[in-house]
Design a protein that fits this description.
Blueprint: E1 18-24, E2 37-44, E3 49-52, E4 67-72, E5 78-85, E6 90-96, H1 103-113, E7 119-123, E8 128-133, H2 139-151, E9 155-161, H3 164-168
Parallel strand pairs: 1-5
Antiparallel strand pairs: 1-2, 2-3, 3-4, 4-5, 6-8, 6-9, 7-8
């Protein structure tokens, strides 16, 4: 089992406190993302509010720790309506250069960022890793590692959700 990779998304999470919230996704001209929606675990904050509890793979503009408002449909699905409060976290997605579908390749990516206090999850089906970069870490060093890895051909990356501190780091 990979460290930092959720295999059983419900494992160890108290059912009464956790909910799944759903984001509607919009594909770009290339057909990305490859899904119409993404479900994320969230901590229920009562009523129609929840705090995201895992890293989005496809949703843009949101990060782990963000508080969202949702509307529940007749089928009981909690559809995200808006952000209520953003965390200081960033979401960065990495596509390894080779072998992203293999556990050890995704784990090597997670291991490269762990010393910086960055966590994440991998998804074999799409051969990618989604990182949660907390605002309290040295974002300039994390950004530098990302850029070096891209220059070396180890991976490509996408900024799924970044903060002002991220944008200005390393300038």
């Amino acid at each position: 089992m990979l460290e930092g990779v959720i295999v059983d998304e419900g494992a160890g999470r108290p059912e009464a406190e956790m909910v799944k919230v759903v984001f509607k996704l919009h594909q770009d001209e290339t057909g990305w993302p490859p899904a119409g929606s993404e479900r994320l675990w969230a901590v229920s904050l009562g009523d129609d509010l929840a705090r995201l509890d895992n890293v989005p793979f496809f949703v843009r503009g949101y990060a782990m720790g963000d508080v969202v408002r949702f509307a529940t449909d007749r089928a009981g699905v909690h559809w995200v309506q808006e952000a209520v409060r953003y965390s200081d976290n960033c979401t960065i997605r990495i596509m390894p250069g080779e072998g992203g579908g293999r556990d050890e390749v995704r784990q090597a990516v997670l291991d490269a960022f762990a010393p910086y206090g960055v966590t994440g999850e991998g998804i074999a089906r799409f051969g990618m890793v989604a990182l949660n970069v907390p605002g309290a870490v040295d974002v300039a060093s994390v950004k530098k590692l990302l850029e070096e890895g891209e220059e070396d051909g180890r991976w490509e990356f996408e900024e799924g959700c970044v903060t002002e501190a991220w944008r200005t780091a390393g300038r």
